[in-house]
Amino acid sequence: MSPQAVRRLWLVRHAQPQVAAGLCYGRQDIPADPAATRAAAQQLAQALPQGLHLAHSPLQRCELLALYLQALRPDLTLNADARLREMDFGNWEGRRWDALGRSAIDAWTADFAAHRPGGGESLAEMLARVAGALAEARSRAAHTEADGVWITHAGVARCVAWLQAQGPHALPRAEQWPVPAPAFGAWETIDLRPLPPPA
Prior knowledge:
Blueprint: E1 8-13, H1 34-47, E2 53-56, H2 60-72, H3 102-110, H4 123-144, E3 148-152, H5 154-166, E4 187-191
Parallel strand pairs: 1-3, 2-3
Antiparallel strand pairs: 1-4
């Protein structure tokens, strides 16, 4: 890839979900607000360049945004990618955070990267799947010289930010998390320049 052709990955977060405040809903397949989703799609359709590869989480709050976007931008082909789903919180899903109990939260923060909250997915496992998708996006950009866009979740965006800053082998401690993520219906871009080899 020539220096002037460095490509970007657009990380788009779904619109406001239709869920009660304070509820743990990670992998739970809840809908997003349709009007907010439509507004986000309109803004994104105007901002995105031509000729990019679009992937989205298969959860409906992301899929709806992808469908609305494609209706406005028929040049885009939708590709559902399970690696772009939010973290799986196991039996915590659908429960209030403040009802989980202090001991459950403490067990998670004590072994933050390896613990599986609610018996679901560990952060280390999530980072690994996002790292795989990011490596694929970087390879595609190098070969096609095209931007990519992911319609995804805050957790995935946070994993990308961590991987970009720390690399695929560093695991965060509880006090280093969460890292920033786009607001509902917003996005950020990252540089898809190939990573240097490890020292």
